[in-house]
Design brief:
Length: 241
């Protein structure tokens, strides 16, 4: 009798354990699925309108380069100009400046800006409210004069704010200011623009002004109308979004 009772008890125990393990396995399968993380927020456009006005009498400005960046400077007084700046300052071509590795957003003026004229250029960067603004343009009736704004902090501008300044002329120091026929790319001459060889002091400085045929320099292709006083441009910056 004892042997006949042990087998059913043993089977009942095994069945109970099997049910328990099955129940535990079912609990593991029923764990809640981790929530899907929310998608990242869409990028926010931060936009500016930059208005450049030519204050000179007879110095057209090359198409203006407008650059937003967080590192570096386009030029430093007393230091050698980069090849990119030299290319713009001697020939008015801003494409190399716009292609610098520090550039995070940029825009170019559509055409040269004549004396007394203005152009407004829009530029947009995403998710950055403290970018630096640089502006650069050549005075094209010169050998290598340029003007602009260098790494100005935009972080102080809220939407709707406007800031204005004026800028002087600089000499890139890469081409001698001979003003001789064939050396000036602007309409006063129609000469050569950028040349790789440097024959001047090789550092950026304040521009001393042009010396013209009216100043007893008979080899100068320029005359008194091409002279300029500082400042040579005004710049107005408005944050639009």
């Amino acid at each position: 009798m004892l042997k006949s009772n042990l087998k059913p008890l043993h089977l009942a125990t095994i069945s109970a354990l099997t049910l328990l393990l099955t129940a535990c396995g079912s609990d593991n399968n029923d764990l809640p699925t981790p929530p899907t993380p929310p998608p990242p927020p869409p990028p926010v456009d931060v936009s500016y309108e930059v208005t450049v006005t030519n204050l000179t009498n007879a110095q057209p400005l090359s198409p203006v380069a407008v650059i937003l960046h967080q590192q570096g400077n386009l030029w430093m007084i007393g230091e050698s100009a980069s090849v990119e700046l030299e290319t713009m300052a001697e020939g008015g071509d801003n494409s190399a400046l716009l292609g610098l590795s520090v550039v995070e957003a940029s825009a170019s003026g559509a055409a040269p800006i004549g004396p007394g004229a203005s152009e407004t250029i829009s530029v947009t960067i995403q998710d950055v409210t403290n970018a630096r603004l640089s502006v650069a343009t050549m005075l094209v009736n010169t050998n290598d004069a340029f003007t602009g704004l260098n790494a100005w902090d935009l972080g102080q501008l809220e939407v709707g704010d406007t800031w204005s300044t004026r800028a002087r002329a600089y000499d890139s120091g890469t081409e001698q200011n001979s003003e001789a026929a064939g050396t000036i790319p602007g309409p006063a001459d129609g000469g050569t623009g950028f040349a790789m060889a440097r024959d001047d002091v090789d550092f950026v400085a304040a521009h001393p002004g042009v010396v013209t045929s009216s100043d007893n320099l008979p080899t100068s292709i320029l005359d008194s109308q091409h002279k300029f006083d500082n400042p040579v441009i005004s710049i107005s910056v408005t944050r639009t979004e």
